[in-house]
Amino acid sequence: MTDKGELTHRDDHYGTDSPTYLEKADSRDGQRNPALDYFSPADHKRIKRKIDLRLVLTLGLMYCVSLMDRTNMPNAAIAGMTVELEMVEPNGIRYSIANLVFFATYTLFQPVATVCTRKVGPKIFLAGICAAWGAVVMGMGFVQDWTALTGLRVVLGLFEAGFFPGCVYLISTWYVRYDTGKRYGVFYLIGSLASALSGILAYALSQMNGLGGYTGWRWIFIMEGSITVLLGIAGYFLIVPFPDQDAWKAKGFLTQREVEYVMATVEADRGDAKSEPFTLGRFLRPARSIKVWGFAMMFLCTTTMAYAIAYFLPIILRDRMGFDIAASQCLVAPPYAFGALIMYCESWLGDKYHVRGPQILTNCVTGIVGLAILGWTDTVGSQYFGIFLLTGAVQANIPQVMAYQANNIRGQWTRAFCSATLVGGGGIGGIAGSLIFRPQDAPEYIPGLWACITACLIIGSITIALDLWFMRQNKRAAAGEIVLEGADSSFRYTL
């Protein structure tokens, strides 16, 4: 800890010669916030590590089971669920219906759930809905017909609706803009372990076939749901509040002075550390901005591909590439592991060099190449390589789009609304992803591949349009013609 004034105004961690949030603190209102001088640069890094371990790690583990619980359908399907619950006929549409109904409630209730995260508090709200959807997943292991399974998927969407946008919102309030990319990357990377390991775990659980009189696919739901309930209970003790909600009272977390310091750095960076009182008009005001819907459309198209891969990759490996059930479940892991590596590297580079758009465009091109290799080559090896490229590009783009949005908005309720619209777009993408690879298109699934290529082109087009507009607005702000986002004159959009 330092005496006042000992902390230098240069923060090498951010890797830029432009004014840092510490330097801007002197110019925001003409006076430096004394909370910024409580700690040395070494203390600054130590505090961030404590936040990372308590916040990002906890939420990442809970998101891991969230992804696993919503995308375990294909593993159960090839383990016998579709046959036992008579979902094969007519035309396999019952399986697609059971997948997509999740996203009806998941999308519809996100705006309300995001407000609840702030009003109820993340500790109670996020942990509570996690335990609740875990109980629903357990119940899916006891259904006797496909309509009961479909009904539980509707309830699952209701409980999961608030988790992802709540996490995105909560993380954004604890970090300055160019720390969010890595944190979103790690958060989603941990979550991606679900996609990488779910097939292997499902195969192991399906070997419990016959135990207690239940078939193997039922044990997939029962055991994975049990794990989720336990994590939800643990989350109650580990999740921390928003920084302005007396977060220092969280046992074993930061001191009051450390929380004040975090809030001061966020205030100096973007001027929205504290939440304004809630009004419906204030919450809905960002809906007038076209960029908000551009971010939502980008996330919609990205998640369309992500869910299409999650729901159908084991089926594609079996039907198109000829692998048996065990191999189809286990071969899902390597592409997702590759995607996790690409995701973190891009997140680190984006924070270091303050860029988002070029990485999103690169992922779009890579995704198109992967889709072309998967769809229009003849050998199994080349097709599997195409899956690597596609999965890596899609997985990497999810935190990139999240960070792209987070870096270019400000205001607590704006963040709440934009988190809801972003993930709401993701919910609509989930509906589309559930229907892209149709049974009648097996085994080549060419129409689905063309749909994914179109999604890549839409993401790329919106990114180029937004970057050009951001560039123009930055130039106008530099010339003193406008003030961006109602912030101080130093705020600039991230390209």
TrEMBL record:
Q: Name the Gene3D superfamilies for this protein.
A: MFS general substrate transporter like domains
Q: Where in the cell is it found?
A: Membrane
The UniProt keyword set, sorted, is: Membrane, Transmembrane, Transmembrane helix, Transport
> Where, if anywhere, are coiled coils annotated?
none
- Composition-biased stretches (Basic and acidic residues): 1-15
For membrane topology, the record states:
Multi-pass membrane protein
Q: From the record, give the transmembrane residue ranges.
A: 55-73, 93-112, 124-143, 155-174, 186-205, 217-239, 292-313, 325-345, 357-377, 383-404, 416-436, 448-470
- Main site of residence? membrane
Q: Where is this region: Disordered?
A: 1-37
Gene Ontology MF term list: transmembrane transporter activity
| Domain of life of the native organism | Eukaryota
Query: What is this protein's record name?
Result: Major facilitator superfamily (MFS) profile domain-containing protein
